[in-house]
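[09:14] KT: can someone run the structure on this one? pasting the chain below
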Amino acid sequence: MISQLWKKRLFDWLAKPWVFPMLLAAVMVLVYGLQIGSLGFYWDDWEDIFLYHLNSPVEFLKYFLYDRPTTIWVYLVFFPLFGDNPILWQSFNLVLRYLSLLGLWWTFLQVWPRRRYEIGWLALLLAVFPAFFQQTIAVTYSRHFAALTLFSASLMLTVLSVRRRRWYVPLTLLAAVASFAQMMTIEYFVGLEIIRPYLLWVVFRDETPDRRKRFVRVIQWWLPYLFPLAGFIAWRFLIFKPVPGADDPNGVINLTLFKKDPAGMIVHLAQNILQDFLYLLIFAWSNTIQPGQIDLASKAAWFGWIMGAIAAVTAAVVLGSKESPTDNNADDRLFLIDWLLLGGLALMAGGLPVWITDRQIIVGQWSDRFSLGPMIGITMIVIILVSRLGYRRLQQSTILGLLLALSISSQIREVNRYRLNWDIQREYYWQFYWRVPGMKPGTALFGTKMPFGLIADYSVSYAINAIYAPDMDAKHLPYWFFSSMRAYGNDIPDFVSGLPVKYSIRNLNFTGSTSTGIVPNYKAGEACVRILKPEDEFSPFLSSMEAKLAKISNLDQILKENNDPRVTPAGIFGPEPEHEWCYYYQKADLAAQFEEWDTVVDLGNEAASKSFTPAVGMEYEPFIIGYACHGDWKTAYELTLKAAALTDNMEKSLCGDWARLEPAIQQGGTEAREISNKVKTGLQCQ
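[09:31] RB: done, structure tokens below
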């Protein structure tokens, strides 16, 4: 009796309307929020951060005139509130996603009030949808989730207008405005408008059993929402024109291609759709666990598995306490048909803005963003298929719980990957700043590849300009990063000095020269950031391409100091990190560039007193030269031996260092010449 009483109380408590919203919030905080203070900016986030630092809404508009000029309202409204604080943007993006899912959950409950179980699982699986892994690119995707939030709010208002008919006019007006706003923000969810008439069809089912009359009624209620849809279509295909001379990056497939080969284009589109459909239905979920990714030594992996299991069990208990499937087989079949039809329609309509531009979810590094539109439809289909596989509630909860747990685990691991990337970015830009306090305008940064992942080459360019150029002009940007493997033969004609280097993207322009560039080199986790110089031609760890770039690196572009307090990574990356070896190396390399040998020696002595040592021998070189030029030949010799012992194939580079020290050796007397001879003999210098 007592156990039955407690069971009833538990079920009554779990049935309270606020329990599921709390569960949904807990899952999203668990997956995305626990590491939010250690996340930053990635990929296209840097585009928006850069535009914010231009301090010009006009330039913001000019930049987005090329594809989505109306999307800038998100940034014009929220950048004044959040600035370039990554924690605020991460929190904002997470709240937007939560509100969008909460709105969909509430709306679907109003339409299918006896299906809390399936609707709850829908919201939870959408929260950790395993085909989309870019939640942490917060500034960029704030516009996507702002649009999805507006869309779900619009659906909510539509359903409310049915339930509160005396408020029909204001609620419908607000819903139509929200619908138009979400379409104009970004086009990803335009096709999901098909959900609205289907929801109205179900809502009016009991009131209007006659299908013909119900169809007419649905059209009448849906008619106000056709105006914002028509307005968007008119804007997108009739009014909006790309900037003269530029292609529309989101343009639909050219109709001329259809005229040339209509059958071939139809087959091509059908193949793209089928491939994406199979990926979303099967492989997106199965890829959440891969044998090669199982790492028992990884704390993040264990945390993801444990938290996923806890969340899945909790969800199964909370949602399992809801009403059992109805005993009315006709109602079950009707619900099955509703969700299969609506899911299929939402899947196709949600993917339409992607497929008509000849893009795919499965093609491209960042293309998982294209799964946002179809994710509602495919998740509905998955839930219905699971409900058919598991006839008992326990079986269904087990399968859905497993999908949820695996999705949570994979998302947590992905968030951790972004966290580690932000640590690497912070190290890179602070080390770069220590070595390069300032740069002359027109400085190009040449690199053979991206210094780290989860970015594009323009991401580095935007970050460097945001840090170093507080008064920049979009028409004449002072700095730009070139990934030489992509730019060689195009933006970089050749790896010889004196050639013009130009780059333009949208309304931004950079002009420089192969004679006014520096070459940053970074191998994260292996060594400090290095600014290569021509003498580094034979330095270990450099590829042939990097060695060629080193020859055109002009350190005269680097300023000794920068007195502008606005030039600092601190505003974006937070307080300056503790000074460890790489700090002393960067400052010593800078001092060596300007032949401040006393400073080099002081830095070397301080680093030694704190037992800091390098990971690679090349980082001893500025200290070797500094101690030698300061007259401490013994220490220079000891560091040379350490460098040669620490890293293989250092001989050519070290021999070059001592060859360049020859004038100082001749002035250094007997000790200098003796030590120089020992070095040359030991290293077998030619």
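[09:33] KT: thanks! The mean pLDDT is 88.
[09:34] RB: yep, looked fine to me
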